[in-house]
Structures are given as C-alpha cells and as structure tokens.
Design brief:
By secondary structure, the chain is mainly beta. It has no helices and 11 strands. Strands 2, 4, 5, 6, 9, 10 and 11 form a 7-stranded mixed sheet that branches. A hairpin with a 4-residue loop joins strand 7 and strand 8.
Length: 120
C-alpha cells in the first residue's frame, strides 16, 4: 500500500501563493500517475492537476495558468505550486496516486488532505 502525506496548506490572502507537497512512501513501485484533487465544503471532490510518470501534465480549467504540478522523483514527492489564489480555491486538497499492479490491475491511494483557506 502507498502512503501519501500532504503538507503546505494554510491561510493566505487573495492573490497570494502556497506550495503543497505530497510525499509518497511504502509500496510505491508501479505508480504511473499522481494527481491533486480538492473538496470545498458542500461540494464534491474535484480534479485539480495530474502528472504522469512520463512527465505529461493536465490541469483543470479553473486553475490553468495559476497552478503548476511538478515532482521530485528522488524524494518521491509531488508538488502543487499555487499562485494568484482566489477565495474560490479554498478547499481541502488531496493527493492521489495511481498504480498499475501486475495481475491486480489499477490501485488508487489517497492522502488525508491539507486545508487551504484563501481569505482576507
């Protein structure tokens, strides 16, 4: 099982920046993609950004041009740099890892999340 631990959340003013981290540990072989999702109170969890093992990236339209996903393979860590933050970005941010396991198919692991609050 993959363990994912998010960090870096906090309170920031509109227009500010934060960098979230997601550290993976445990049985990390076979991870072929990692993603960030977020969930605001009363809303469903929504996709934010994706990075594949080959390096390709995908972003939700709502964060394009403001958020950047990246990774440090030596540290088994994925980052989400968030700039020009808006109150609408307030949510719990979750990290997700997708593994392809021989004979077992796809396994998805989740972290416990980190709170991001954008407010003046």
């Amino acid at each position: 099982q993959v363990q994912l631990v998010e960090s870096g959340g906090g309170l920031v003013q509109p227009g500010g920046s934060l960098r979230l981290s997601c550290a993976a540990s445990g049985s990390i072989l076979g991870i072929n993609a990692m993603r960030w999702y977020r969930q605001a109170p009363g809303n469903q969890r929504e996709f934010v950004a994706h990075i594949a093992s080959g390096g390709s990236k995908i972003y939700a339209d709502s964060v394009k041009g403001r958020f950047t996903i990246s990774r440090d393979t030596a540290k088994d860590t994925v980052y989400l740099q968030m700039n020009s933050l808006e109150p609408e970005d307030t949510a719990v941010y979750y990290c997700n890892a997708q593994q392809l396991l021989p004979g077992a198919g796809v396994r998805i692991s989740w972290g416990r999340g980190t709170q991001v609050t954008v407010s003046s």
